[in-house]
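Lab notebook: predicted structure, single chain.

Context: the supervisor wants predicted structures on file for every construct in the current expression panel, including those that have not yet been purified. This is the next one on the list. No modifications to the sequence; it matches the entry in the shared construct table.
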Amino acid sequence: VQLQAFGGGLVQAGGSLRLSCAASGRTSIIYGMGMGWFRQAPEKEREFVAAINWSGNSPYYADSVKGRFTISRDTAKNTVYLQMNSLEPGDTAVYYCAVRTRSFTGGGYYASSYGYWGQGTLVTVSS
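Prediction complete. Output recorded below exactly as produced.
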């Protein structure tokens, strides 16, 4: 299965962007799996942003984005979205989508729980 993320770009602080991540190929592999977004800023480690379960009714977020970002998914389209509002310069990073292939309590916050990754899309927030 391949993941294609898009929607990144340059935006001023306070602005909004919507990222999309579409799965293609053998999408039957990811049936029933959660999906998530991570980000990596220059010279920093990859960090968790948000994740959502298969049915889309249980999203969860990093504290740094809670109340500003919203994750959602359309299982029929094999696509997950990240609506980002009130963007801040600290949100500047490459954003990656991923499929959670390992399921254990609390594991959704860790990159090691995700087995399929997209190529990333750059989000730059200017002050």
